[in-house]
Amino acid sequence: MTTPTTPTTGSTPAAPTTGSLRVPGATLHYQVRGEGPLLLLIPGGAGGAAAFDNVADGLAAEYTVATYDPRGISQSTLDDPDATQRVPEHADDACRLLELLSPGVPARVFGMSSGAIAALHLLTAHPERIERLVAHEPPVVEVLPDAAEHRALLARVQETLRTQGLMAAMAVFAEGSRSSSGVRNGEPAEPKAEATLPPQAAARAERTMANLPYFVERIMPSFMAYAPDTDRLEALSDRLVFAGGQDSRGELPYRPAAVLAERFGTELRHFPGGHTGLTTHPDQFGELLRKVFRA
Hints:
Elements: E1 17-23, E2 26-33, E3 38-42, H1 53-59, E4 64-69, E5 77-78, H2 87-101, E6 107-112, H3 114-125, E7 130-136, H4 147-164, H5 166-181, H6 199-224, H7 230-235, E8 240-245, H8 254-264, E9 268-271, H9 277-280, H10 282-294
Parallel strand pairs: 3-4, 3-6, 6-7, 7-8, 8-9
Antiparallel strand pairs: 1-2, 2-4, 2-5
C-alpha cells in the first residue's frame, strides 16, 4: 500500500513528491524527484533521505531519483520499536520500493555505508531488479583478514553502550577504528552540527544525531556482522561498482570495498572527500556519480 502526497511547488527546484509505503513491520517514507530511468539512493548510518538533499536535484535532471528513510530512521516508523534489524529485511524494503517505482524495469542503485550493505544484499537476492549498483564504502568487515578484531571492537562498543551510554560507546568505536587502521576513521554518520553549517545542513545533522542511538543499538551490530555472498557478488560484478573516498584510504569503511574490488578484478572508483564525501563535496560527488552510471 502506498499513500503519495504531492506538495505544492515552491521556488526552483521544485519540492519532491513524497509518499509512504507499507512493508512488513514498518512504514517507509520516501521522496521522488525528476523524470527518466529510476535511480534509488540508499542512505547509510543514522542518515535518512535528507542525506541526499545536496545531490538529488542535480541527479533528477537525468533520472527519476528516489530517496527514503530506512525503517526506524526519521519518518519511517517501526511497528515494534524494539525489533531486531537485519540486512535482508532492509534489502527487501529497497526491493519493494523498486517494484513500486520501476515495475518490471531494472534500476540504478547507489548505496552508502550501511546502505551499501543493504544494496549488496539486494543485488545478490534480486539481481533482476538492478541495472547497476554503486556501493560506497560498505563496512562489511567480515571480508577483511582482521575481521576477528572488528568483532571484538563491536562487542566492546555494545557493552559500553549498555553500561556507559551513547557518547562513551562512540568514543570506543572511534578509538578502536583509529587503532586498527592507523588513521582517523570516518564514522558512518553525518558530521555533527556546527555553527558554520548552513541552516539546512545543521537541521540535517540534528536529525542524524537524533537517529544515532537507534543506529548504534539496532543497526550497527547486525550490519557490521553481515557476511556477503562474495561468490554471488563476483558473478554479478559486471553490474557492481565499488567506491571509496579519496581521503579515507586505509580507514575501516574503505577497506572492504578495496578488498572486494581487488578480489573481483574490478576498478575501485575514488569519490571526492572521505566517508562522508557526499556531505562535504556534494557537487563533485554528484557529478562523478552521474559519470559512473553513464559508463
